[in-house]
Amino acid sequence: MTGKEGARLHRQFDRIGRAVPASTGFLAWIRKPSSRIVRIPLGILLILGGVFSFLPLLGVWMLPLGLFLLALDLPFLQGPLNRLSFWVQRKWTNWQRSRKNKQR
C-alpha cells in the first residue's frame, strides 16, 4: 500500500492502537503483508457480522472494522473510508464539546 490514502489509513490504525492499547500487537501483525491470507477473510466476516448486528453478540462496530481491514488490500476503499473516518471523528469531537458546554 502506497500513496497518500494508504498513509492516512495507516494513521487511522495507529489512532485505534492508541485508543485501545491492548490491540496494538494484533494491529501490527494484521497490517503486515504476510497476514493478507487472514486479513481478507476476517474483514469479510466482520462485515457480515455488522450486517447481522441485530443478533446477540454481533454489533454495528464490526462493519467499519471489517471495511478498514479490507481497505488495506483494496485501494479503492481507502479514500472513501478515510473521508468517512475523519468526518465521524470531527462530528464526535463536536458532540463531546457541545455536551461539555451544556454541563457548565
TrEMBL record:
It comes from the Bacteria. Keywords: Membrane, Transmembrane, Transmembrane helix. The chain crosses the membrane at residues 37-55, 61-81. This is Uncharacterized protein. It comes from Devosia insulae DS-56. The lineage of its organism: Bacteria, Pseudomonadati, Pseudomonadota, Alphaproteobacteria, Hyphomicrobiales.
